[in-house]
Amino acid sequence: MENSSLSGKGILMDIDQRRKREKTLSTPSVGKLVSHTGSKNSTPCDSLHRLHHLPRTIGFTDELGISGAAVREFYSSGWKRPLVLTREDFYHWQFCKAPLCLGQDRNCLVVDEGQVVGVMGVTPRNFLLQEQTFVGAEMTSWLLAENHKGGLAALMMDFLQRSFSVLFGANVSEAALQIYLRKGYTQVYMPRFVRVFSWEVVKPFMRATPLAYKLYNDSRHALAGKDRKFRLETVNPENLTPIVDDFRQTHSFFSRYYPDIQWRYEKHPLYKYQTFVVRPATGEGQGAFLALRVDEDIDGFSMLHILDLFGDTMGMQAALDFVQTLAQESGVAAADFYTTSSAVSACFRQDRWFSILDDSFFSFPHLFHPVESRVPSTTSLVYWSRESSSALHDVGRLYITKQDMDLDRPGPAQLERLKTGGVPLR
Ligand SMILES: CC(C)(COP(=O)(O)OP(=O)(O)OC[C@H]1O[C@@H](n2cnc3c(N)ncnc32)[C@H](O)[C@@H]1OP(=O)(O)O)[C@@H](O)C(=O)NCCC(=O)NCCS
After folding, report:
1. Which of 325, 81, 340 is nearest to 223 (CA)?
2. Is the beta carbon of 144 within 6 A of some atom in ligand 1?
């Protein structure tokens, strides 16, 4: 059941008028969109005419007639560190290619006299909650021009909350957090799990007491003696759909049906992911969906990041056996995963991975390009929903991972290397 729609929403809002009248616009004027033949190099996202005659407005990129290039230029000029959203290939993948985008650019902009002066990156995605499907969105990289700060951000948030039923952001800054919390969002830190495979290699980057080292040794011996058996399958709609159908009975999450998985992992412009359906060697059960990436590019070591792991318990346990076999065979120094779901976390706890939020004797970086730790060393989320918010607050049944909110994206150090013709990213 579709509870909200991206069409027919208030698209443009004359902020100055709104302030003057001090009332909410119930039927905002929508700028007439002009069909456009487009230049040879234009893409669907960039193909609308610019509307220069408008006063200061808030709206979606395409409906304001602003080009993606202008948004990227605004990010380039205002974001303090190198940002992957300034790359055309990445921008189009992130903001126009996700299944619910339907080729349109739904970034939330503030435009003043035809110039972009504010942006919130928005990727619309179906959100599955209590057997219903809502039009949700992931938000990223909120930026206002210096001379437009002080008030507009709250109006952008009003616009987004009118346009989407469920909204998520991650790792928000102090300035942004104030607005999120006052607009009814909740902040949570995601449980994160780490397994070290090569202690000496990662020692300089982590904080660990002698107890952590003893537990590392214990886990190595346990792993060496474990009979690991699993069956790997290529992901296709037939084996993925029943896993998602079952998982949504107990969890709320951004859709992971086949088109979503294809977009997120197969069509990624820069990273190479591996995806599997994993079952125990006996072939029992429906199995679990697993997505991972080996990051070989970190300051002297490599990491295996698990992006997704969900399914039946036997499948998830078999997937963890596979991950640990792969990690050891490929010589990665450590592996990590974070999730809000307590059922998925349970597999990591049972397998004795270090828990960043619980094990005070162990801390490990969670940002890698460059290597960086914040306290706590995991990702924070902010979420909001118009309806069914009590279900969303049941965070043990929420499934958000590094797959979501574009959390697995090239960092500043990698972007610098790409610019200077360095090795392609993996
Ligand atoms: C984040 C950012 C977009 C916020 O915009 P801003 O113009 O600085 O924010 P605002 O001044 O509008 O909002 C902050 C203030 O509005 C208040 N506010 C927010 N919503 C409000 C509401 N509905 N009613 C009343 N006050 C509200 C906040 O409490 C705060 O006020 P205070 O500092 O006086 O207590 C901007 O600071 C920015 O571009 N920062 C740099 C990049 C960045 O950090 N991005 C966020 C990444 S997550």
Report:
1. 325
2. yes
